[in-house]
């Protein structure tokens, strides 16, 4: 890969990162807080590409390169020397052997971001991993739920209150949660939401069993908003043997995928 | 690469050239003009020149008269845009789709750390004079190791950034033992990582202490081990002629370009491996290992290597592996930032394969031993 091609790859990578972070695409892969760093990194990549092209294409390059070849330093590089002598003098080929070929691989993330743009982790990933609630994250006390009827809570919040607080801080309140549908090991419907701490590689599902008027006939990965009350029913996730709390559903409706797919 | 070239490359100062290199240089013009490449010298390249040899340079140059990398790149991109639809359909299969999501997100997560790490390493390579390191680090290498390990505490970053920085430090004359101790310590015990660990284990503050102490110990032990057993010729930093002789601005951007492309390429390899493991290894396999104390330590140590999770995030994953003992999860936290697939891939790229093949397994063994010991004391 010669230097011009490297510059193009840097430009593409920087452009792809900037584009992903200016649209909401990046939220499918990382936390929101990374955005300023992504933009800065993208700008730096573009700057590196522009400076590389500037140094490569400036006519002043050639007279400088010639003495460098003559002082013996480039003499080690048989090919550089030969390129100069045979007059095929394409500068970037002269330095071919330390221009890393592995750099071609950087086209893959560019493709991933610009052409494929894979969706956020969904039902498949949720089925592979065990529910993320462990006694480690148990808090000592849970503050009362905010006002509202029904009150909007996250799947993670509901699940930890239901499991570790035995639903005490939920009481008889109606709650509304948003998540995607996935099918449990016994075919029962499960409401799941992925939790990220850094990037999708560490994404883990929080799973919620549904009783009562549970959504039926929906394909996996369909996003729904469910309204319901605390249920003391608990099952175990066969993947990691952790407890899965339940929600007694009163009503549900299908919703479009949220802008922030992770909690 | 010919033997003299290799010798020159091994030397800390790339400016010095073995006089034996002369014949190569003078022999080259003797080759007939039509013959594109000195095949005799190009062929050994393939075997010796590190993990990413440009072994086909001869062929490339023959084609290069008409088709250069830019043209190949352009053709590739056009093809991909044309075949976008069938490609997207092929990737819709859930397993493949999850793979793509994980791969892309590992890359997106790592790019800022990679770019900032590369910038810092380019600053070290171009703007910080060699004399600075001589003054900043104790002269005795045995003392420089703990100082460099402690210096790792102040650099918040993940492991992808610290590999090029360590390469730059060695290039600038820092003793490899100290640079390697820094390489291991920086991603493992910086404030961000320790805070993340405290958040992930609210009921076990001893995990934060254990992680800090064990990681610092491993970094120092590896530094001293290198002093006793390490051989300078295992480390083969690629020759970088662009770093000397040209203006500072030009050298700086050349270093940035080279490191992003080089380390970034190996990062892609590592991210692909991590995504594959993520998709292929179902978590329920781990469940069966959790009950045996020895197997659980080994399982999480190997998992840390395979998963290649960023050091800022691994504490949350460790917290969720609640079926495992605290000691085995401490092993996971100590091994992860020091040895993992993407790090091994990047180390092989930056320091050479001979180095990575020895350094990574040694670090793995030391990290597991120290973490088990620390875990036994704390819990």
UniProtKB/TrEMBL annotation, chain A:
Biased composition range(s): Basic and acidic residues: 74-96
InterPro entries cross-referenced by the UniProt entry: DUF1980 (IPR015402), DUF1980_C (IPR048447), UPF0703_membrane_permease (IPR052955)
TM region(s), chain numbering: 36-54, 102-121
Keywords recorded for this protein, A-Z: Membrane, Transmembrane, Transmembrane helix
Oxidoreductase listed as a keyword: no
DUF1980 domain residues: 172-262
One protein family per Pfam: DUF1980_C
Domain of life where this protein originates: Bacteria
Region entry Disordered, spans: 61-96
PANTHER family named in the record: UPF0703 PROTEIN YCGQ (PTHR40047)
Protein name: TIGR03943 family protein
Automatic annotation (TrEMBL), chain B:
InterPro entries found in the cross-reference section: DUF318 (IPR005524), UPF0718 (IPR052923)
Membrane-crossing residue ranges in chain numbering: 67-83, 103-128, 177-201, 208-227, 260-281, 293-309, 355-378
Membrane topology value: Multi-pass membrane protein
Keyword line: Cell membrane, Membrane, Transmembrane, Transmembrane helix
A GO CC term assigned to this protein in UniProt: plasma membrane
Top-rank lineage group of the source organism: Bacteria
Chain segments carrying region Disordered: 1-57
Record's compositionally biased regions (Low complexity): 14-30
One Pfam entry name: ArsP_1
Localization of this protein: Cell membrane
Name of the protein: Permease
Species whose genome carries this gene: Micromonospora deserti
